[in-house]
Design brief:
about 400 residues; alpha+beta; FAD/NAD(P)-binding domain; 2 domains; seven-stranded mixed beta sheet; 11 helices; about 30% strand
Length: about 400
């Protein structure tokens, strides 16, 4: 028989992804009573960003966690290279960045979240509730005062001075709060699959770009997580052409996979990831703040979504932790988070929209053999590779910890 449970806290965070878990960690570190609610039983999901950028590694250093963090299984990439129309092109060189770690760490996101949650649990003011799906907000006199969730044990009601929506692009908090979303049309989707890896395979590269199309391979140690860009809404068309034709498409990008593409022997092994770029007009209302993908869904381009979400969490803790320790925060306090984080979000989304409409379209385009002029410049002048390295690795307006510590 289902029972109803009630909980009172200072801050309730919906979603245990990078934004939610980092915000929970930092607020608990500052002595704020915080509850993180994650609807799944664990963090093991394929559709998650694996790129931990130098800006995030710098934050781990500032927290005193970097050495332990880097003991987790990961690969380090100091230079991003792309195979463009058959030519290998260096795109970004992280080795000159003004950060402690001059590389991108490729780490399965479940390892990253397990690491962060295990450290957050050391703070007495932190609680993590798994298998807890938030289904509604509690609203009184136009102010969000808490939430209602389903758990295996029954219903849970959480009353909180602040609810943070960090529940991703299909955000319940965003929808229940009635926040207006601005959608930017993206002409691509991504097919997501795994193919086994061999010891003699080439090292991790940024991807294989060919005539407007793109295949990305993420090194997951014993297998490749593959992302194949297609024009939006064309998955059914690709299915009609048949699996052998799709396998040939993969091989045309990465010939070394020829002896393994037959592993993709059923369409159920190929998942459709719908690419979205959108942003809320207002990230908050009285008693509620949205951050990460809940406030601004990013495309996978550049792998920057996870790091932007973490920057949101740091800014939130910097601006709100002190006040939250003693009581509620006003909507004007919440607007300061949006004011701080909206400009870098707009800039990165603008860059992603340009890339998807002009460069990676999923459709055949242009001369198959030539290199775009910008990529030729990167090949000819190595110093220019520091520009994309800085944009991808650090990003506009990187955050640093200013939130208090209760330790």
């Amino acid at each position: 028989m289902n029972t109803s449970e009630k909980l009172q806290t200072r801050c309730a965070i919906v979603g245990g992804g990078p934004a939610g878990m980092m915000a929970g960690y930092l607020l608990a570190r500052a002595g704020v009573p915080v509850v993180v609610l994650e609807k799944h039983a664990d963090f093991n999901r394929d559709f998650r960003g694996d790129t931990i950028h130098p800006s995030t590694l710098e934050l781990m250093h500032e927290l005193g966690l970097l050495d332990e963090f880097l003991k987790q299984p990961h690969q380090e990439v100091r230079e991003l290279r792309g195979v463009v129309n058959g030519q290998t092109v260096p795109i970004a060189d992280f080795r000159q960045l003004p950060t402690r770690c001059k590389f991108i760490a490729f780490m399965p996101q479940w390892d990253f979240l397990n690491f962060l949650s295990s450290h957050a649990k050391r703070f007495p003011s932190f609680q993590l509730h798994m298998e807890t799906e938030v289904v509604d907000l509690l609203i009184e006199n136009e102010r969000v005062i808490g939430l209602r969730a389903k758990t295996p044990r029954g219903e849970l009601e959480v009353c909180a001075d602040l609810v943070i929506g960090a529940d991703g692009r299909h955000s319940t908090t965003q929808m229940r709060a009635g926040l207006e979303q601005r959608e930017f049309g993206v002409p691509i989707d991504v097919l997501w699959m795994r193919i086994s890896k061999k010891q003699e395979d080439p090292e991790q590269s940024f991807g294989f770009f060919q005539n407007g199309k793109l295949l990305v391979l993420l090194d997951r140690d014993d297998y490749w997580q593959c992302g194949f860009v297609i024009p939006k809404g064309r998955f059914d068309e690709i299915k009609k052409r048949g699996l052998p034709q799709f396998q040939n498409d993969i091989v045309s990008f990465a010939g070394f996979l020829r002896d393994r593409v037959a592993e993709l022997d059923d369409w159920s092994k190929i998942k459709l990831l719908t690419v979205q770029i959108n942003r809320l007009r207002d990230w908050c209302r009285e008693g509620l703040l949205c951050m990460g993908d809940s406030a601004h869904a990013m495309s996978p381009a550049g792998g920057v979504g996870i790091n932007l979400a973490i920057q949101d969490a740091v800014a939130t803790a910097n601006l709100l932790a002190e006040k939250l320790r003693s009581g509620p925060v006003s909507v004007d306090d919440l607007r300061k988070v949006q004011a701080r984080r909206e400009w870098p979000t707009r800039l990165i989304q603008g860059m992603q929209i340009f890339i998807h409409r002009r460069v990676v379209t999923g459709r055949p385009s242009g001369d198959k053999q030539s290199l775009p002029f910008l990529l030729r410049l990167l090949k000819w002048f190595p110093i220019l590779r520091q520009l994309p390295a800085r944009f991808i690795g650090i990003g506009p307006r990187p955050e640093h910890f200013r939130s208090p510590s209760a330790e």
